[in-house]
Every structure is written in structure tokens, then in C-alpha cells.
Amino acid sequence: MELSPEWVVGFVDGEGCFHVSILRHPEMVAGYQVLPQFVVVQHKRDIQILYALKRFFRCGVVRVNHGDRYSYRVRKLEHLEKICDFFMKHPLKTKKHIDFRKFRKIVLLMKEKKHLTKEGLKEVIEIAMEMNTSERPSLEKIKKDLGNG
Amino acid sequence: MELSPEWVVGFVDGEGCFHVSILRHPEMVAGYQVLPQFVVVQHKRDIQILYALKRFFRCGVVRVNHGDRYSYRVRKLEHLEKICDFFMKHPLKTKKHIDFRKFRKIVLLMKEKKHLTKEGLKEVIEIAMEMNTSERPSLEKIKKDLGNG
Question: Is B15 on the interface with A (CB under 8 A)?
């Protein structure tokens, strides 16, 4: 199955997700790990679409998600940069592009290793809070843990 | 906002729905009304996408769906024919194309007014049962009501 860039944009406008997790990780300098990921979830009957996305972007993995749902997932920073470059060149048309722009900001901060300092991490968390509003309380807590330093 | 055919296919592969309802309607010869519809539902923040689809297909309406969700909906038979022509020319890539082909069969049967006879209506119900599996029990019941005539 051959995908066109415009089809991919339309499909991701519907089904794609740009998400940033902030996870406790005592070995990291700032005590937390930043985990941005681009994910598309489908019922297993459409697993071939997920593999077509993997071939299209030439990165990422297809994994079981929950029950009979599978996900195409990109986590490696260098690969997320490729994903971001694609969606800068082929913009999303739904309001998802707002989340995407915030996601990209975080990816670029990580590329500059800003997230490894408390200051930079707080900046990342501020952006993530605007994206993942349902996780705002836990992100607020992490920000508080990081102190005013 | 200008939509391209390929973007529309990708978005509908993700968010579109081809659905056929069979409703009791004593004034119809066979006692039931066949109501096929093409629907795309979005949160109100993306209502402009629904209006863009309406402009793209040059038919259909945008209406409130549930709470803060809106739908773009096409119900008129002549307009559904246009929608079907589009997706025949620009095929869906997910398994949704299987539902679409069944949906189109029903639209074509209706164009020939087959659904106005008991025989034709039973044929429509048979196809609808394969599409809307969750509604199979109520469709089975209607089929039984129609008898073996």
C-alpha cells in the first residue's frame, strides 16, 4: 500500500496523537525523563495501515496497544525530528496543528538538551501542560517538586 | 480552507462513517424507511473542517451532534450518489472501504427504488446487517416482520 503525503496528513488529522509524558527517573540530572511520542492507534483489522505509515516515515514501530488495538509509535528523538519536518512541510488542517507546534517546540528543546536542566525541564513542562490538559494536575506537581530554582 | 481529495480520503478513513438506518414508517409501502447517511463528527473546535467538507462536496449540512460535538451529514440520495462517485474515484485505504462498498450498493438499490418493495427492502436489510453489526438483532427482527413474502 502506497500512501501519499496528503492522505497521511488527513489521516493523522483524524487519528494521530502528539503526546509528551514526563516520567520520574532518578538517574536523570533533573530527576525526570521527557518522553515525547507520535502515535496512531487502529483496530487490528487496519494493522496494514500502521505498517504503511511505518514505511512512509521510514521509522517507528507497530505494537499491540490494548486488546485488539494496535499502535504505530515513534519515540526516538531523531525520528521525531523527521516527523516534525514532515508536518511543517505538510501542515495539519485541524486544531491538532496547535498541539503539533507545541510538541515540536519540546522536540527542538530536547535536541538542544535543554530538558536535562531544571530550568529547561520546567519550560518543557509548561508547554506539555498546555497540550495534555487532562494531565495538568500531575504536571503541576512535578513543576512544584522541581522548585523555584 | 481548501481541502485536497487525498486529504479528504485520509480524514474520512479516520473520521468518516457510512451508516444505514432502517426506520419504521407506516406510510411507506413496505412499512419501513431506509435512511443511509454519510457522517463526519468533530469536536466544535474543528467545526471549520466540517464546513470545509461541506464546501468540498457541495452538499450536506453541519449540525450539532451531541454536546460539544458537531457533525457534517449527507442524507439526500442524489448527494449520496455524488459522495459515492467521489470515493469510487478516490478509494479509501482502510477497511472502511468494505463498509463503503456495501453502503454504495444500498444507495444504488434505492436509486432504482428497489427499497420500496418488500423483496428489495429485504435485500437492503441483508446488506445493512453486514455493515452495522451492532444493530443486527433489530434488523433481524425487521426482516422477520417483513415475512417470507
Answer: yes
